[in-house]
Amino acid sequence: MEQLKSIGRELAMGSQGGFGQSKEFLELVKSIGEARSKAEEDRIVLHEIETLKRRLSDPDIPKRKMKEYLIRLVYVEMLGHDASFAYIHAVKMTHDDSLLLLKRTGYLAVTLFLSDDHDLIILIVNTIQKDLRSDNYLVVCSALNAVCKLINDETIPAVLPQVLDLLSHPKDAVRKKAIMALHRFYRKSPSSVSHLLSNFRKRLSDNDPGVMGATLCPLFDLIAADPTSFKDLVPTFVNILKQVAERRLPKAYDYHSMPAPFIQIKLLKILALLAAGDKQASDKMYTVVGDIFRKCDSASNIGNAVLYESICCVSSLYPNPKLLEAATDVISRFLKSDSHNLKYMGIDSLGRLIKTSPEIAEQHQLAVIDCLEDPDDTLKRKTFELLYKMTKSSNVEVIVDRMIDYMISINDNHYKTYIASRCVELAEQFTPTNNWFILTMNKVFEHAGDLVNVKVAHNLMRLIAEGFGEDDQTVDTQLRSSAVQSYLHILGEPKLPSVFLQVICWVLGEYGTADGKYPASYIIGKLCDVAEAYSSDETVKAYAITAIMKIYAFEIAAGRKVDMLPECQSLVEELSASHSTDLQQRAYEMQAVIGLDAHAVGSIIPSDASCEDIEIDKDLSFLNNYVQQSIEKGAQPYIPESERSGALNISSFRSQDQHEVTAHGLRFEAYELPKPPVPSTVASFTSSAELVLVPEPSYPRETHQVASVPSGVLDAGPSELKLRLDGVQKKWGRPTYSTPSASSSSDSTSQKTTNGVAQTVASTVSSKAQETYDSRKSPVEISPEKQKLAASLFGGALKTERKPSPANHKVVKTSSSHATQKSQVSKMATVSTEGAVDRTNYQAPDLLDLSEPTVTSAPLSIDPFGQLEGLLDPNLVTSSVNHGADGVSKAPDLMGLYADTPVSGQSSSMGFDVTSEFLNTTLTDQGGAAVAYPTQISKGPNVKDSLEKDALVRQLGVTPSSQNPNLFRDLLGERIRDKPLWGDKISTRDCKNQEAHTGKAFGALWRYTRFFEAYTSLHFLHDMLILLN
Amino acid sequence: MIRAVMVINTQGKPRLAKFYDVQSLEKQQELIRNIYGVLCSRAENVSNFMEVESFFGPDTRLVYKHYATLYFVFIFDSSENELAMLDLIQVFVETLEKCFRNVCELDIVFNYSKMHAILDEIVFGGQVLETSSAEVMRAVEEISKLETASNSISLVPKSVSSWRSR
Q1: Does an H or E element contain A527, and which?
Q2: What share of chain A has pLDDT > 90, as a percent?
Q3: Cβ–Cβ of A20/B111 closer than 8 Å?
Q4: In sequence order, which ranges of A317-395 are alpha helices (DSSP H)?
Q5: Of A850, A918, A983, A1007, which one is least surrounded by beta carbons within 10 A?
């Protein structure tokens, strides 16, 4: 109704001219508004398009009409219908010099219609050039507007001189827009304006504050890209910010009684960039940022925006206790506010500050939990973000459980993937027990399914295979049998994600019969069911058949008699006729393996050896005999490629290379990227580390030999190699895992001592604070459930029997020894974390907020023994127990709880740091190795490889069907075992398989070579083929 | 940088859509639909912020404000401040209010080009240009004044030319 009422008004307005539209347009809008369905709306719009098309084809339409048609078309296009037939008319209209209105409409239409790579752009560039030189500043402005949207990196040079001229235009509005246009150019193609960047600096001192403000936008981008070259501007920015904050700008720049808040925000962002990790720069900013905290009006929205930005700035400044204090005050105000927006900002800023002062989260634990339970999804997700940042081993269970609960409850796949990966990451890093880890993974897999990264699956397999890595085998066995049990249970579920099934199959195959609880036939039956139920998924089938083979092999090796189950028999038959060569091969392999005797099977597939290393004879010395024989029989000796006369001819194949490869049935890239390079044992580091080191030296040298290879290619290999390192999987955080036991033992001692510390010193809250707090807020308000949650999130396990520590007395004690302790700590700065030193509480009386209960805390409490030990022990723990208002709610006994638990949490997490760093260095090598070679083999821009590949293809095309049995016997001599690392493939071959055609032989060879491809590249295969011929 | 500005009514019809980076027509429609989808499922009294990374790509945030029958939506990246964007919506709406006195959905539909003129004075090429609604009003009025002025001037030669051709 309201709409109809205003239509009358609209009609009146329409007749006024100016921006008004005709009656037809009114009709159109009205009918669209009344359309009951999308189809009806579409019909109306299509009709409108038809009408407009007809009208536009009329050669002389009055210009005013034309303008209206264009507006109507823009409107139509906004509704999602194509109006491309009118684009040319819009372009024509920009040429119109007689009427400003028309030109502006033309520009409006083209900016909305065209993208920057549209063919018609070329027709506009000339007009834009002309208009940028116009005397009428409005024409210039609309041209600049079009420049922002339509000019691409190719056309930038055409308009750049004009835009530069406009930087000194008398009108400030034009200067502002010219700066922004230049900024746009920078964003589109940084190189096009790289020589003009000084202009931005110059404009910073423009008379007009608006222009200066506009300059901050490009400078922000530039500084984000390279902070160091702008360090000299720090005093300038600080100065500007000071002037703005002191209201030196004209009143016109005030917004809601804040002086130029948008400029302040931009400046604070810039300062944050410049100050990151720079104490000197930070020093210059403390005063001004402090001023802003003081002067900001926290009642208005924009005031809070500036405050939030100041917190962000503080979080990247070199820590300053006073500013941190002020920031904490603001955060608590945000969190206590009723506005969800402010709560959101509060949580966000908490997440930023937590890096510098971890204890502030504990002050706000209840507020955080409230946000976690809030119906607002945005807030909830932000809170998960915060929790993710503050996870440690003491609270990982609670946090991950919460995350999984939330993950189950949502439908948004994007976020589901995200939170699943977060869960996995946290679980990997902080898992308290392996059993919990497996259960958590099961949950994640079940609910997030195929959204989970494949790496995770491999990590899980690895964990099960390796167990704790301790000597105690029983624990590992228990872990495995519980995994098997849970998987057999889960298999009952109707629809499981593929990745999870792969894990299940692998584990069942490897350990299904290990504990003897389940008979082989039962497990095999289950695996057959899987292969049958998920028959469309080849990977799962491959995993299943391999698992079945393993179980049979174990049975045979154990000397038991095996009977092929009928369903298994039919599965094998089905697979050996499969279209997938991979499945086919696995089926044949399995049949072959079953036919062997116990000893042979035992050496092909030894039981529980997935973690053992595969020995690789890189020199292929086992072939020497054979080569010798062949040569004696008159075969051609191997001539290194460089000495071969025909070597250069290969280059002529270059153009066809990739096509050729795809045309053939066989794939000549490496079989699939070895799924995430999961290092299987510590021992394997050595072998794979070699792999990564070796490839380069031999590699560039060879490339030189092909004369026509462009030199750029040489660099491609290594640089690519570097890039790939990014994807290296996350390492395990658990210290007991693969580090020597020494570190874990030191861990436990330090834990013990810190507990001692906590007991002697505990927490200290002045009873006065307690009183004021209690009088203000009764403890009943907070439900015990929440407190429990808070305790588990922020403190750790509840231990209610802990004695409350008499507060007042101890305050004195700690504060008296405080100074000395501090100095001691700083002496040991090398071992203690920076945060710990800085965590000393500063209580500026003027900042004391009345709404805050006064909490004095014992900032540093160190056991003297602990200190002594600390000198030797990297796990020195300086614990500062800081209690927020909310935490104190339930009288001193709760305090006691918080007192000791964070300490232990901290100590162990520090232990993690050390070990994870250790792992880090070793694992990246490892990861690098694993990732390194596919980059060489797979398509890549490496011409050399493609050439060789091509040559191979050609040779293979004429490969005779005969093959050499000796070769495979030798191959069999090497025990090749599958590992999760290799995507669960088995590379064994049976002598009986000699009749298999050459393609398959080649495949097996190929698999074998995967192990040292990085090392030998492909020329080995040349030789093989020559030999085979 | 501001990536897009949209005004969508409560039935999901776009009333204004401006994308500051290149998006195909279909993609624009899809984005509008997606955004409307999440907007209308949001309860009252929740925050004005939303995660839109799932359809707008990484590092994007959304701030919206609900006025009567319209959602005003700004999408931007981490170089902007959420609360400040909320205020920018406020500036935009205030300016509209000043322009149309008691602005309603129909004003926006009918004065499509004026809406764009106003928006262009506030956000330019994805950056915040002006935050004072008075200033924006002045600029927009100047445009309309000049446009009508140039109309009246051009009317003369037009009539002359038509007279000549007669």
Answers
A1: helix A520-533
A2: 5
A3: yes
A4: 321-336, 340-353, 360-363, 365-372, 377-390
A5: A850
> What is each CA distance from A942 to A184, A711, A751, A1010, in whole angstroms?
36, 11, 54, 18
Task: Over range A662-691, report the average pLDDT.
Answer: 48
What are the contacts of A708-714 at 24+ separation with CB within 8 A? A708/A648, A708/A651, A709/A943, A709/A944, A710/A943, A713/A941, A713/A942, A713/A943, A713/A944
Provide DSSP, B97-147: HHHHSS--HHHHHHTHHHHHHHHHHHEETTEE----HHHHHHHHHHHHHHH
CA angle B13/B18/B19 to nearest 5° reads: 120
Q: What torsion, rounded to 10 degrees, do the Cα atoms A500, A505, A506, A512 define?
A: 130
d(CA A448, CA A454): 12
Q: Residue B71 pairs with which residues in a beta bridge?
A: B8, B66
Of B14, B82, B135, which has the smallest distance from its Cβ to A252's Cβ?
B135
First-last CA distance in chain A: 88
**Between the CA of residue B104 and those of A852, B14, B108, what are the distances in Å?**
44, 14, 7
Taking CB atoms and an 8 Å limit, are A256 and B87 in contact across chains? Answer: yes
| Cα–Cα distance for residue pair A795/A304, rounded to 1 Å | 31
Domain chopping of chain A, boundaries? 226-390, 393-604, 622-726+938-1028, 735-818+851-911
Nearest to A341 among B48, B131, B147 (CB): B48
Hey, which residues 32-91 in chain B have their CB within 8 Å of chain A? 42-43, 45-51, 53-55, 79, 81-84, 86-87, 90-91
Residue A68's nearest CA partner among A85, A54, A52 is A52
Query: Which residues share a beta bridge with A258?
Result: A255
Tell me the residue range of the domain where B68 lies. Answer: 2-165
User: Which residue would you say has higher pLDDT here, A105 or A16?
Assistant: A105
- Residues recorded for chain A: 1029
Contact between A2 and B150 using a beta-carbon 8 Å cutoff = no
Q: What is the CATH number of domain A226-390?
A: 1.25.10.10
In the numeric block, the tokens 């009006």 are attached to A297
> In the structure, what pLDDT confidence band is assigned to residue A609 with cuts at 50, 70 and 90?
low
Q: Judge whether A137 is closer than 8 Å to chain B, CB to CB.
A: no
* Total domain count, chain B: 1
CA distance A123 to A429: 58
Distance CA A625, CA A1009 (A): 19
CA distances, A134 to each of A29, A80, A110, A165, A166 (Å): 36, 35, 19, 12, 11
A508 in Cβ contact with A523 (< 8 Å): yes
Residue A136: phi, psi to the nearest 5?
Answer: -80, 115
pLDDT value, residue A70: 87
A37 exposure class (CB count in 10 Å sphere: 0-12, 13-18, 19+):
exposed
| Residue whose C-alpha is closest to residue A676's, from A987, A930, A422 | A930
Question: From CA B160, how far away is CA A38, in angstroms rounded?
Answer: 48
CATH of the domain at B86: 3.30.450.60
Nearest residue to B86 (alpha-carbon basis) of B66, B68, B103, B114: B66
* Residue predicted with more confidence, A337 or A706: A337
- What is residue A319's DSSP assignment? P
Give the model confidence (pLDDT) of A553-573 as tens digits. Answer: 888 887 777 777 888 888 888
Average pLDDT score over residue span A768-784: 48
CA-based nearest residue to A975, from A609, A597, A466, A550: A609
Q: Tokens representing A361?
A: 């989260």
Phi, psi of A951 (to 5 degrees): -60, -40
Q: What ipTM is given for this predicted complex?
A: 0.89
Nearest CA-CA distance, residue A79 and chain B, Å: 7
* Tens digit of each residue's pLDDT (9 = 90 or more) over B58-115: 889 999 999 888 999 999 998 898 999 999 999 999 999 888 888 888 888 888 888 8
User: B145: Cβ–Cβ under 8 A, 6 or more apart, which residues?
Assistant: none
